[in-house]
Structure formats: structure tokens, C-alpha cells
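[User]
If only I could read C-alpha cells as easily as an amino acid sequence. I have put the entry right below:
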Amino acid sequence: MTSNDLLRAQHPADQFGRAVAARLSAGADDMPYEVRERLRAVRVRALQARKKPASAPVIVGHRAGAATLAFGDGKPGLFTRIASILPLVLLAGGLVLLDTFQSDRRASELAEVDAALLTDALPPAAYADPGFVQFLKQSGRE
């Protein structure tokens, strides 16, 4: 028996199917030959038409005291490789997008400040004067 057969034999539906087949086979000796042959032919066709499992069996292994989960033969396929790289690509793309957004926002804030300074009635040199800061502090108290 291979490992796939062992996994299938342990499946509850397979166990139920084997129990039903055993019950049906128990009374087959009392039936006429033609009926037994027709039943055997139907069983053979049913087994041939049975669908194979769509996915590879899940294998649980133990490495260094930790359980690992592997699908199929344990070799990483194309989907597994893409699925492991995709979060990294999305994270890098998100960081680039955030940096671009923050840079644009900061540039627009600085542009607004520059536009307010240039369109104000005071010349830009007045803002650098230490007396002007003192004037603002006194006018803020009043």
C-alpha cells in the first residue's frame, strides 16, 4: 500500500463505502449467476468512473520539533513561489506609493507657504528680522 492508499483508507467516507460493500457482498452468494455478473460489471464501471482526488494529499512532517505542512511531494510549485513572493512585492510597492504621496503632500504644503509669503503685504526680509518676532509676540498678547 502506498501513502495515498493509506490516506484514502482512513477517510470516513471510504470506510463507510467499504462497510456497505461488505454487506452487499455477503448476500451475493445466494443470488443467481447472471445477477452476480451484472452487479460485478456495474461495480467495475463505478470504480473506473470514480473521480481521482483533485489535489495532492496533505503531508504533515516534523522538523526540529515543529510540525510542517506540505502539499503533494513537498517540492514548491509555481503557485507556491508566486504566493511567497507576492506579499513582498506588494509591501515594496506600498512603501514606494506612500513615499511618493508624502513627498507630494509636503511639496504642496511648502508651495502654499511660499505663495502666502510672496503675496503678503510684508516683504520676505521682514520675516527674518528679530524685531518682527518680538512684534508678533506682543500683538498676540493684546
